[in-house]
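One-letter codes give the sequence; each number marks local geometry. A record appears below:


***
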Amino acid sequence: MNYLKKLKIFSLALMALCVTATLSMAQQVNPPETAIKSAENFSEEEIKTFVKINKDIMPLQENIQTDMVSSIKESGLEVPRFQEMAQAQQGGKLKEVSNDPKELASFSKAGEKIMKLQEDLQVEIEEVIIKNEMSPEKFEAIYMAYNSNPEVKQKVDKLFSKDT
């Protein structure tokens, strides 16, 4: 797999992580069934606002991705290795992937920088949501419906592609 493809996969994973983290900051997690049931209750204006917010967030995410890649490289790791170690850590198998104390320290250092960047991004995303006069809870509900309801996904995708 070439570097650009790996970077795209990293970017998608990062975007999902950032949105999930932002949504958890809202401190109200609606169960997916609620999002699906309420999908019909989203007005056209709310869907349009959701699309606008996502378009406003995209440049923020692109900037953070560049900063994250820089942080990983500054720590002495390559992006693919960091991803491998991060996946192993999530599965509780980091020691199986690396026993090198220096590499583990570099991973930890990069991870701390990335967590700080993600926290900053979460604040910025929430500000964009609020600036666009949508509650984080409503954004979360539409996001969850987008991921679980084909009808909502189709509406959002249509509006998103229409304006780009």
The chain has eight helices and no strands. The CA atoms of residues 72 and 111 lie 8 Å apart. Confidence is low (pLDDT under 50) at residues 1-39.
